[in-house]
Amino acid sequence: MATTAITPDAPKAPKTNHIGLQVLDYRGGKTTLCAGCGHNAISERIIDAFYEMGIEPERVMKMSGIGCSSKSPAYFMSRSFSFNTVHGRMPSVATGALLANKTMRSLGVSGDGDTASIGMGQFVHMIRRNVPILYIIEDNGVYGLTKGQFSATADIGSKLKTGVINDLPAIDTCALAIQLGATFVARSFSGDKKQLLAILKAAIAHNGTVVIDVISPCVTFNDHEGSTRSYKYMQEHDVPIAETGFVPSFEDIAVEYDPGTTVNVRMHDGSQLRLKKLQEDYDPTSRTKAIEALMEHGERGEVLTGVFYVETDKPSFTELLNLVDEPLATLPEERVRPAKSVLDDVMQRLM
Amino acid sequence: MATQDVAVAAGHDRPAESGSTANAIPPGKKINDLSIQIATVNGSGSQSANSVLLRSIFGMGIPVSGKNLFPSNIAGLPTWYTIRASKDGYVARKKEIDVVIAMNAETAQEDVKSLRAGAAAIYEESYQLSQLRDDVAFYPVPFDKLIAGVCPEAKLRKLVKNMIYVGVAAWLLEMPLTVVEPALRKQFAKKQKAADLNWGAVQAGFEYAQTNFTKKDPFVLEPMNETAGKIIIDGNAAAGLGCVFAGCTVVMWYPITPSTSLVEAFIDYAKKFRIEADGKATFAIVQAEDELAAIGGVLGAGWAGARAMTATSGPGISLMAEFSGLGYYAELPGVIFDVQRGGPSTGMPTRNQQADLLACSFLSHGDTKHVLLIPGSVKECYEMAIAAFDLAEVLQTPIFVMSDLDLGMNNWMSEPFVYPEKPMDRGRVLTAEQLTELGGFARYKDTDGSGIGSRTLPGTNHPQAAYFTRGTSHNEKTAYSERPDDYINNVERLNRKWETARTLVPRPEVVQTGKAKVGLIAFGSTDFALRESRDQVRNEYGLETDYLRLKAFPFTRETVDFIAAHDRVYVVEQNRDAQMLSLLKLDIPAELIVKLRSIRHFSGIPIDARSITDELVMQEGL
């Protein structure tokens, strides 16, 4: 059986995707982030992923908090509805928007400060509810807009440009997300185009909370010797847990794989996530193994990347609420305002 | 008056105030004009008995109101329930207590000592209160002995015991048991066994009183016809019901006293009336992790086109500050009910105040201001709930509905609520077809001088439908901009929208004869006491007053005219700092400010007419 070419190379960049849109239709405004910022690369991969998956941009709500990361939704998919909210509280706004219209897709872009410090409360409760959102943490270990203070994901012993050493342990957002019951948890690196794109496409195919922590070096404040979030550090310490491949549901291609070395996950929309094991004991359906792997590699100073955990059959939050099929936001008056006889009856009972 | 209230609150946190008019009640009958205070221990199950008593008086056709004066505690602390019956229709708290039912050993002595001369006291025999005074009619009842006779199951006795005082009170006040029984059966509608057991206790109390007592006080109730066709409901249930009929579809909330029962009422009604034939809901309710998430969810839902609300109280309001500013600046609809309680900080969670006015008016940093609706009755809790959702969507901004604990958690008599005549107004929302016609749109462009732009909803199927919503400074087309002209254009437009709001909010209720030199301004639950106080100052001091009841902020022309038309205008409110008066000062012409006077009541106990009258008379030098 063929075990290579899990993601077949595209014959040539097609002019349009399977819903007839060009990649241009997924572009956004010009970035105002620093040249070389990892976040720009992530924006590019988001454009690629939504384009290649053939998602109508008008069906997407781009949600973000505050910080460099949270500005980036302005730089991709201008035809999507965007909401740059307040610091650390994007999950609640995204949740409310999805309650109003559960037929929309939600893409959340956050940072390590926005998620792991000020936003920790909303982050954990979003996960606990399994809100159907693709939540990306653009993780550079520092506060960029305020010029380079450590964030809560910075590794212990990591050094700031000014020489200050971080003496507090990092919060591992992936291990935390897995523990809290997130149904799709991955880590990637903004510099790993292929892996990040494959993970994003699988995430788009998922129903439920997706947490992707993307290590995204800050070229201005955290790319120096002594930083554990620099390009150099990542190039030396990135350890993929598996090779990530993705076969979308709409591509009529049967790609063989070896069940002995590759885990095949059938996603909510019928797509297939192909994960070729690169580490022993890899099992993306086991929470405990995923957390164990994260802790073990973390202790060795390595940055484990890839899809750590996937659970495809847990109902999402909007499914749990037993809502009518149509968006609540636009239900006609006769369906949301009970008849006069109902009020009269209530009044009668109160007499 | 303010000083006296503080003293009362600091003394023993007691609702019963002996007051300055503690004269002996003249002999003879006093018909349909009394207050009953029932002193119990929190958690002793007195609520059913009190409700039966209230509903029995209501059933006799006598205007009545009930108030729970309770501690922030689940069980064990003293709690009082006051009932007021008034042939004149006065339903505010009465300062003087006419009949006390003392069921709490810890407070019984104080409960009796604070009575005015001529009052009546029903109490547990073993408390031995009769030697305390000789100017009060005492009715000692052996509750434990009586309950043992009617309730064989010992563990139920504690719950049923209270129903005995209903029977004793019925005898004392000459209420026929034929009105008590239907009230009791209604209370235990679906629990036949409980109804029978409790009815037995009522009868036992009545019979004991009939056999052992001679009536020594003047208080009696006689049937009237003043409650026919009226309902009894609390303001929170009324507001929850209003939200159901307003077409509210998303609720995100965090429990906090005294607002919790508003959302719980919404949940109950929505489950009954907003589930479709296939069992699916036309509403989503999320108990959030905190108030920040609650309002975040409301604004997210409003942005995406839903009618969304949350309900909270003081501390929750403080937590909602940052998001409220986003709602104002990014122009997001949403409805926030603030059922006000005693502040500052955690304050008095179960006590009444109107002290969040300034906080809500300007909630958040920067030049932020919000539209407030201020219901003054349970009927308005219902009506303003409906109005709030229309206003939120028309004005594209958060609307605060300023209820309070007294209104929200107490039972009030009301005319039945009226079905909304007007269809829902969803505001300016562009469809894909309209976008094609217009060739696109600028979200924050003022096309007609109203200051209100047009929005699209996420999912609108048009390549030019999307826009970028942000709390950062933006131009008409939602792009980030720090250009001075863009910034000024935007915030000046928000001010024009504020002026539009002024034309859309409910107008005040004005009672003006054209002769009075003194005007009174009040709002919210103060209305009940104020109406009664106007009668007192007229009847007792010959002072005619005009009255304006505010229903909203920003203020409207009527308020300015009213102040201008009087020599002195007293703003009566339930907070220490004269918050409404301060708001008025910001909004009215400078030359009118000197006319404003202040009457405040902030002990946490609901305001009463006598306190207003005493203070007004003093300030007027009468």
UniProtKB/TrEMBL annotation, chain A:
Domain Pyruvate ferredoxin oxidoreductase beta subunit C-terminal: 274-322
UniProt keyword terms in alphabetical order: Oxidoreductase
Keyword Cytoplasm found: no
Pfam families with a match to the protein in the record: PFO_beta_C (PF12367), TPP_enzyme_C (PF02775)
Domain Thiamine pyrophosphate enzyme TPP-binding: 66-214
GO biological process: cellular respiration; small molecule metabolic process
InterPro entries: 2-oxoacid:Fd_oxidoreductase (IPR051457), PFO_beta_C (IPR032686), THDP-binding (IPR029061), TPP_enzyme_TPP-bd (IPR011766)
Top-rank taxon: Bacteria
Molecular function in Gene Ontology: oxidoreductase activity, acting on the aldehyde or oxo group of donors, iron-sulfur protein as acceptor; thiamine pyrophosphate binding
Protein name: 2-oxoglutarate ferredoxin oxidoreductase subunit beta
Organism: Bryocella elongata
From TrEMBL, chain B:
UniProt-listed GO biological process terms: response to oxidative stress
Spans annotated as Disordered: 1-26
Pfam families: POR, POR_N
CDD domains with a match to the protein in the record: TPP_PYR_PFOR_IOR-alpha_like
Gene3D superfamilies per the UniProt record, alphabetical: 3.40.50.920, 3.40.50.970, Pyruvate-ferredoxin oxidoreductase, PFOR, domain III (3.40.920.10)
Keyword Oxidoreductase part of the UniProt annotation: yes
Highest taxon above the source species: Bacteria
Pyruvate flavodoxin/ferredoxin oxidoreductase pyrimidine binding domain span: 242-404
Key words of the record: Oxidoreductase
Protein name: 2-oxoglutarate ferredoxin oxidoreductase subunit alpha
Species, as recorded: Bryocella elongata
